[in-house]
Automatic annotation (TrEMBL):
Annotated family: Belongs to the ArgJ family.
Subcellular location: Cytoplasm
Subunit structure, interactors included: Heterotetramer of two alpha and two beta chains.
UniProt KW keywords: Acyltransferase, Amino-acid biosynthesis, Arginine biosynthesis, Autocatalytic cleavage, Cytoplasm, Multifunctional enzyme, Transferase
EC numbers, comma separated: 2.3.1.35, 2.3.1.1
GO molecular function: L-glutamate N-acetyltransferase activity; L-glutamate N-acetyltransferase activity, acting on acetyl-L-ornithine as donor
UniProt organism field: Pseudobutyrivibrio ruminis
UniProt function note: Catalyzes two activities which are involved in the cyclic version of arginine biosynthesis: the synthesis of N-acetylglutamate from glutamate and acetyl-CoA as the acetyl donor, and of ornithine by transacetylation between N(2)-acetylornithine and glutamate.
Record-annotated active site: T190
Protein name, as recorded: Arginine biosynthesis bifunctional protein ArgJ
Taxon lineage: Bacteria, Bacillati, Bacillota, Clostridia, Lachnospirales
């Protein structure tokens, strides 16, 4: 497997376009379209929030059916959540607009929205945006990059990645883009993500691979403890690579899953590092835990703690905050087995050793924690399971951004 240029348009047959539709933002692109030249099998994961946006419900119905997916239309600025029947009407109008200009059945068109909850979408602008994007659809790297920029809200950087890998001597490509900066917390985390591959694979196996990978990537990031109404990940596979169709969990399936894991983990880490107001990536790695579930629980508790996040922001090696978060996480462990370290590109420092604090050099700790990415590394000494979670520090700017989000 190797990382290649581009994102959502990297795989054969995928095109993208973007436009400034004026949904909410002015002076910037705010709509994107992803299109496959041939119908795709699809898989998806969606928010576990009981309050689901109209677009989430629309997409869940399509992905869970036997229908293919051939296009996705995304808008930023307004979330189309808590919008009643009018919200569903907006989804259908958008999809029918795609049917009119591209000739694909409207019920093979997924839609996604991100932005303010409780506002109605201007349907006329949505449909006009679709019509403006259709003639601009392009398979270039730039078209994919511009699409990834159009779906941003409070994100400060666009998020895209692509890889290539071989299956039985055939080159296969997988590319993706995502957005997410605030209201991010597992299950699924607040985000939109769209993946396109030219792999030929059965729908059921695609869904299983996506669900497994999301559990260890997007579901292991947190910014602020809020799970969104709009979380959506859709993976489309159009089969144009020409590989022998994957119909079982063989070596080809594992090769695809490895590539999928790399793409999703990379996008997830970029989202965590770009958390609203964040100044650094905050990572927690748990090793030698009793079980995988315990390891996940402990790692997520550490990066999800506001006190831990504040300590990371202040470059304060106050290890008690991280141990405290572990203690209330719900995982059962003996603190007298635990070793805790701080790690970064600037060094590594043990600060807690099996129930006993270690006298450490505060200047060395400060140097380590001033890096752009800081890891709290914990050895549980109770088993062989491990997990990593990602978050960000908690800064003054987080409050500023969210205090006036609607304006």
């Amino acid at each position: 497997m190797k990382v290649i240029d581009g994102g959502i348009t990297a795989a054969q047959g995928f095109e993208a376009a973007s436009t400034a539709a004026g949904i909410k933002y002015q002076g910037r692109t705010d709509m994107a379209m992803v299109y496959s030249k041939v119908p795709c099998v699809s898989a998806g994961t969606f928010t576990t929030n009981v309050v689901k946006a109209a677009c989430v419900q629309w997409d869940m119905k399509i992905v869970k059916s036997d229908k293919p997916v051939q296009a996705v239309v995304i808008n930023s600025g307004i979330a189309n959540a808590c919008t009643g029947q009018e919200g569903f009407n907006a989804c259908e109008a958008t999809a029918r607009g795609v049917q009119e200009v591209l000739g694909v059945p409207y019920d093979t068109v997924a839609v996604a929205s991100t932005g303010v909850i409780g506002m109605q979408l201007p349907v006329d602008k949505l449909v006009a945006g679709v019509k403006a994007m259709a003639p601009k659809l392009d398979g270039s790297v730039n078209a994919g990059t511009e699409a990834s920029k159009a779906i941003m809200t409070t994100d400060t950087v666009n998020k895209e990645i692509a890889v290539s890998f071989e299956i039985d001597g055939v080159e296969v490509k997988l590319g993706g883009m995502s957005k997410g900066s605030g209201m991010i917390h597992p299950n699924m985390c607040t985000m939109l993500a769209f993946l396109g591959t030219d792999l030929d694979i059965e729908k059921e196996l695609l869904q299983e691979a996506v669900s497994d990978v999301v559990a260890d990537s997007f579901n292991m990031i947190t910014v602020d403890g809020d799970t969104s109404t709009n979380d959506t990940l859709i993976c489309m596979a159009n089969g144009l690579a020409g590989n022998k169709k994957i119909t079982s969990k063989d070596e080809s399936y594992e090769a695809f899953k490895e590539a999928l894991s790399y793409v999703c983990t990379s996008l997830a880490k970029t989202m965590a590092a770009d958390g609203e107001g964040a100044s650094k990536l905050f990572e927690a790695t748990i090793v030698n835990a009793k079980s995988k579930e315990d390891a996940k629980t402990l790692a997520r508790a550490i990066v999800g703690s506001n006190l831990s996040k504040a300590a990371i922001f202040g470059c304060d090696a106050n290890f008690g905050r991280f141990l405290c978060a572990m203690g209330y996480s719900g995982a059962d462990f003996d603190q007298n087995d635990v070793e805790l370290f701080f790690k970064s590109t600037n060094g590594e420092l043990k600060v807690f050793d099996k129930g006993t604090p270690i006298v450490f050099d505060e200047e060395e700790a400060l140097k380590i924690m001033k890096a752009d990415a800081v890891t709290v590394f914990v050895d549980m000494h109770e088993g062989d399971a491990e997990a990593t979670a990602w978050g960000c520090d908690l800064t003054y700017d987080y409050v500023k951004i969210n205090a006036d989000y609607r304006s």
